[in-house]
Design goal:
- The structure is a homodimer of 324-residue chains.
- Chain A contains ten helices and twelve strands.
- The first copy, chain A, is an alpha/beta fold and 324 residues long.
- Chain A is globular.
- Helices cover 35% and strands 12% of the residues of chain A.
- In chain A, helix 1 (38-50) packs across helix 6 (218-230), helix 2 runs parallel beside helix 3 and helix 3 (101-122) packs parallel to helix 4 (162-174).
């Protein structure tokens, strides 16, 4: 099993201790699953910054993949909310899922169902980090897919990677569950160089595939999703991407304009060239409509601006060298 | 979790103790998973009858769904072979899987992958009870599907029950695994009245859907599959159905001719009528070709004869009443 987990943190964040106990607001406490992963770490940073007490469950000490174990923990600690940032994405990329189907299927489709079962029994509302990578392309008129559209990059279309198939099955397993948010993330990035950061990936791949995508600035993603719960937004599915879409060539232009990396980027001729030479499984490239989130009062910055901001505050990893 | 399990039995069957130790043949020992299920019980009966020592693993005492736990047991007990008869079929019928997708997906697709992982690491060959219900219809010329045909009643065709989807995913997860048999069972029956016996089901349903199917006499199924291992048949996928196909009306005629049940059977007008009034998810009705098994030297009786034999030796359940 390669699901992410991390150390158990103190249940109360330091910032909450400034007021005398009688003046403290009612303490909220959050359970976080997958806290050591790329997305989970961003949640930890957010919760610490907001002073929200949370417990990042570690599978080695509390096997939350066992619904009875999770249920007992929920009943004991009585968290107000649970965030599932655990999942199986494949490393270094989605191709790896093709070679570890058992764990991919378990982490992305069975685990969400087990969490739903435990949360339902314990009466704990929760949020699940789903993926927009269960879509490909755009609506016929070129606009983004809404939450009303049926995923079209799934096992049921027989056109997808095993990863996307399992993420779509995860949504299918959760269909009908109450008190749960399904937050669709897509191709996360931010200003911190990382093997999981889309901008870092583009700077480090030998050749790129040009495609239009809606993508998610990671820190905005975790803030927006947490705001769903804080603001009592109705439960359900939300596309949590920065408004708009961006092509790979546009991102590359922004990277070059920023001065972060000035190498000459090379592109595959087309998707066939990419599939023949660089990939074992098809990628989702798609445009999402994030209007439902906006209508719920939660804003994210337009995608080009989010990329510019990340590049303007870019922090290179000291251990990695970007090609000149 | 509703996977089948049963009591641990003595590892050595009584019949093996008749010879003095120095004359005993080399002891074989089998691990059986799902031994308390409808198929698993038939394996237990077979193994007892053959005097083959086996251990029927019980999840309550040894959680074989955890690959590390199973691996440790395999390394400790060193069985020669493992039979996986555990799976999630839905009770009273396949419709139930639509309402428990998490456990269905886990039992039918993740668990086989975990068993494969443990068996591979321990170097233990094994057999998996798969299902022919990942096909629908027949080949264009009306003949049965062979092991070379791609399953056509799966998530990837988007035409199937959740049960069939998960069984097909289970085969997909096992693709490329070495030292494993995939034995495709279809609509099991034998001479013992049971809620899981196809003949009992037909006698107890209010109305029937007429369709042509290849089906598996349960005791012949377990004998044929075990013979695969005993006879060193090459690993791989085998359709383990009684040769030929039979329509529901033909089975009903055989039931009436046998005198086991003389009620007037009623039929749905067609599949649409059936789906509209009696079922929540589509059924697999299909014809299989069992020639590969026969070519490997393992025979099963022709399907009509197998049904006649079962009815001729029919044992009614004392707790159940068949309509006159």
């Amino acid at each position: 099993m390669k699901l992410e987990h991390t150390k158990v943190l103190l249940p109360l964040a330091a910032g909450c201790g400034r007021l005398p106990p009688e003046q403290l607001p009612i303490q909220r406490m959050i359970f976080l699953l997958g806290g050591s992963g790329y997305v989970g770490q961003a949640y930890q940073q957010l919760l610490r910054a907001k002073g929200v007490p949370y417990r990042s469950l570690q599978r080695s000490t509390l096997d939350y993949t066992d619904p009875q174990v999770l249920l007992a923990a929920l009943r004991r600690d009585r968290p107000d909310f649970l965030i599932n940032a655990a999942g199986y994405t494949g490393k270094p990329n989605v191709d790896a899922c093709e070679y570890d189907k058992t764990n991919c299927l378990f982490g992305n489709a069975v685990l969400p169902g087990r969490i739903a079962q435990a949360c339902e029994e314990a009466g704990v509302p929760w949020g699940h980090v789903s993926s927009g990578c269960i879509f490909t392309g755009s609506r016929p008129d070129g606009s983004g897919f809404t939450e009303e559209d049926t995923p079209n990059f799934t096992f049921r279309q027989n056109n997808c990677s095993f990863y996307s198939g399992t993420k779509a099955l995860g949504e299918e397993v959760l269909a009908g569950s109450g008190n749960v948010y399904l937050w669709r993330l897509r191709i996360p990035f931010n200003n911190i160089d990382s093997p999981r950061n889309y901008l870092s990936k583009l700077m480090n791949y030998d050749k790129l595939l040009d495609a239009a995508n809606s993508i998610s600035e990671l820190d905005e993603f975790v803030a927006a999703t947490f705001a769903c719960w804080e603001n009592h937004v109705p439960f359900g599915t939300y596309n949590v991407t920065n408004p708009g879409a961006v092509t790979t060539r546009e991102v590359v232009d922004l990277i070059q304009q920023s001065g972060v990396c000035s190498k000459s980027f090379r592109f595959f001729t087309d998707e066939t060239d990419f599939m023949n030479t660089a990939a074992s499984t098809p990628r989702s490239n798609c445009i999402m409509d994030s209007g439902k989130l906006l209508a719920a009062g939660i804003t994210m910055s337009p995608v080009h601006q989010a990329i510019e901001n990340a590049l303007a505050r870019w922090q290179s990893s000291p251990t990695r060298t970007l090609a000149p």
